Predict the structure.
Amino acid sequence: MSQRILLSAKEIDIILHRLACQLQENHLDFSDTVLIGIQPRGIFLAERLAKMLREDYRIKNVKLGSLDITFYRDDFRRGEKTLQANKTKIDFLVEDKKVVFVDDVLYTGRSIRAALTAIQSFGRPQEIELLTLIDRRFSRHLPIQPNYKGRQVDAINNERVNVMWKENDGEDAVYIVEKV
Amino acid sequence: MSTLSVDHLLGIKYLTKEDINLIFETADHFKEVINRSIKKVPTLRDITIANIFFENSTRTKLSFELAEKRLSADVINFSASQSSVKKGETLIDTVNNILSMKVDMVVMRHPNPGAGIFLSKHVDASIVNAGDGAHEHPTQALLDSYSIRERLGNVGGKNVVIVGDILHSRVALSNIFALQLQGANVKVCGPKTLLPKYIESLGVGVETNLKSALQWCDVANMLRVQNERLDVSYFPTTREYTQQYGLNKKLLQELDREIVVMHPGPINRGVEITSDVADSGQSIILEQVENGVAIRMAVIYLLASKIK
């Protein structure tokens, strides 16, 4: 198994600031907007962005939730393992809100498909956008594209993109790992 | 550990501690789901479940059916009173006929102990035991432990007394297994006539005095007096039973701390428990019912994910 670094901590920081600015461009003071981190790995990025918007850009009302898509996935009973759920925490209404899904890697698009179904259980959003740190283009199974993306990569199918976060994995970095 | 060690839920005695933890963690997520404004997830849309009840049941059947529907499974219901069982069909034939309609899972209640185990050996479907005679009622025990965990934070190390008709009770047996597996201390309490002879061999304490049992416990699980099963007299009168083994406010107030009161339902108000206790803040009877749906969703989800 060989791995190479795609993004360093410094590059990730620059990208996060750019994404935060792009979000503000479209959502201004976030009064009608909510950020939803997709479990399990999207929540770190969502928390990072929310913190940055609150502290570095002085936006008071950034609403943040986390959405688990396990029960909405389309590969139930297809793998060997039982799919284990994570916590969903959305303590506000998404009815008529602008929802921004936040996930670390966009690959086949199936997780986002599931998230689009799952969010309906919390109301009817006015619109839904997608923000992702890494966009693996050319590997989509569904017609889903991000509105905001950190970096586009052309990783091939036997490669994995691993996004690491300081609060969970000890460092900020993105690696491309070749599976044997 | 992310898969159950069993393919069927036949009784608590076949489960491991890890299985119970996995069921509880999964139930936590489903409890969040059933408290949303839209209480349904599409997970089991390609699974068909038959609820086969050879014995009367209201809340268990409702709870299972609701759990199945909230997971988007297709559900068929069958009760023995309106079926060919009356015409002499055997259990295996009845179930195989249902399965030939492409059913993946069977939830069964049956008056004979071991009916689920027997069925699991002869038919090709996942079996969930919803009560087999006086043997086991695993989902009830799971939801009872889950409710204790929710109220007290943990089951391990807690003292639990099960009061009433232990002899005829599948709830008692499953609860004993489940509580011991999680490290709780269990005592049973009731008139001698309603305690099975060798119950101590399961490692539970026996207490015939309700007052001292209550002094000892953190949780009292009050079982129903099952009049329909008491074909001979096990105690002189209901009134005498109530005087000795009925739980009332006065008994609770005499204790030096607050204990948790449970009841698997349906309640005989004024017999095993008085209304003021059943409706008090110490009682978690209605939480048990709510948790029942989440627990059954978890069990069905985890078993269904093993169907190939």
Observations:
- The longest helix of chain B spans residues 285-304.
- The mean pLDDT of chain B is 92.
- Residues 12-137+289-304 of chain B form a domain with the Rossmann fold fold (CATH 3.40.50.1370).
